[in-house]
Design a protein that fits this description.
By secondary structure, the chain is α/β, with parallel strands linked by helices. It has 14 helices and 16 strands. The chain is globular, with a radius of gyration of 22 Å.
């Protein structure tokens, strides 16, 4: 089958491990002809946005990528773009007819070229359309009825032709139904996950030893890990404070990623502790090895794709509780934080550290249940109706 992934509302940036990167990779792995169509928006490892050159290339997964040039907008389109933040591209229609896909997978359904996709589906009734959605009440708040109508206009149109409109968390499924007005019959949950090809379970013990040596941590030390985009909303500064104040010498913390300027100021007093290891930005594939080298992952703030990646590695986890985000609990594999303070984080760390029975239960359920649920090989099949 020919599958085209369209990323004009979301983003496709090489070297990251977002769903936009991994689903096409697995669809290619399954033996399909896969194509990616994106726009000129990109960002670097510091998450600084920039406009890349339009053009075509074949990426490391042997997938042809078309970066379409932004189109000149009229006055009305400029006004709409202020609400939806994504402008038209040039050549989408020609590209679709050139590829002639059997499946179209749209990542995010709020952009000005949606009518092009709808027209193609009308003219090619055998094509199967799937759409995913990553917005929710936190990252895409709707402040008034006008914005609600504008944001929901294109998703409602797309939903008429889609086999399934996926929300990537339960909260996002609810958002699709309540904000965009899409029927529950068309919406469902498609969780994010981890890239199985990057998780070497067979050599877990060797990886554990190798990566701990990088930061001079013993094999039997209790190693906590966290990271990602480090801003105040992630509350990683509270975790650093918590580990700093723990009076147990063999508990350490690995933090990957680059803190923003505000967080740098907050964590500066704790950086002299030998228990806190700031390892900076690391490649997306390297993240999985650090997860395998650790004992527990702690994410005390807002959601990121790293939550599901940690779960895919079979790692016991501690998450900040968010209504509509409890899909990460698939059966006693994680704990939740309900407050925004370091004391609660300390209590939970000490609980999994001292209560061996609890830790073993979390570990077994993470390895035997969560790792399978959050496997992208499984998720990629579900995403296009293969499972």
């Amino acid at each position: 089958m020919k599958i085209v992934h369209i990323m004009l509302n979301s983003f496709f940036v090489e070297g990251f491990s977002y769903q936009e990167n991994i689903l096409p990779k697995y669809h290619k792995y399954f033996g399909h002809d896969v194509f990616i169509i994106s726009n000129q928006f990109a960002f670097d490892k510091y998450y600084q946005p920039y406009e890349r050159e339009a053009g075509e290339y074949v990426n490391k997964d042997d997938i042809p990528v078309s970066i379409l040039k932004y189109k000149k907008q009229n006055i009305i389109e400029k006004i709409i773009t202020k609400f939806i933040r994504y402008q038209k591209v040039d050549g989408l229609k020609d590209k679709l007819y050139e590829i002639s896909p059997d499946i179209i997978f749209v990542h995010g359904g709020v952009f000005l070229d949606v009518p092009v996709i709808i027209k193609y589906c009308k003219e090619n009734t055998s094509v199967k359309l799937y759409v995913d959605h990553h917005g929710d009440y936190h990252n895409s708040p709707v402040t008034n009825r006008i914005k609600k109508y504008i944001l929901g206009y294109y998703p409602r149109k797309l939903a008429k032709y889609a086999i399934k409109y996926w929300g990537t968390t339960p909260w996002r499924v609810k958002y699709l139904q309540e904000v965009y007005g899409i029927s529950p019959l068309k919406t469902d949950l498609l969780v994010m996950g981890g890239d199985d090809t990057c998780i070497d379970f067979d050599h877990r013990e060797n990886i554990r030893k190798e990566y701990r040596r990088k930061i001079n941590v013993n094999d039997d030390d209790f190693l906590i890990i966290t990271g990602g985009k480090i801003n105040e909303g992630k509350n990683i500064h509270l975790l650093i404070e918590a580990v700093y104040n723990l009076n147990i010498g063999n508990i350490g913390l690995v933090v990957f990623g680059l803190p923003d300027e505000n967080v740098k100021k907050i964590i500066r007093p704790y950086m002299n502790s030998p228990k806190i290891h700031m390892i900076g930005w690391i490649d997306s594939e390297e993240v999985y090895n650090w997860f395998l080298a650790s004992d527990v992952a702690v994410f005390p703030g807002t959601h990121s794709v790293l939550w599901e990646q940690a779960l895919s590695c079979g790692l016991p986890t501690i998450f900040k509780y968010w209504e509509g985000m409890t899909h990460v609990d698939v059966g006693n594999n994680c704990l939740f934080l309900y407050k925004n303070n370091s004391d609660e984080i300390i209590d939970n760390i000490l609980m999994v550290y001292h209560d061996k029975e609890l830790f073993i239960k979390l570990k077994n359920n993470s390895e035997n249940i969560a790792a399978k649920v959050f496997s992208y090989e499984r998720i990629a099949k579900i995403s296009i109706g293969l499972k």
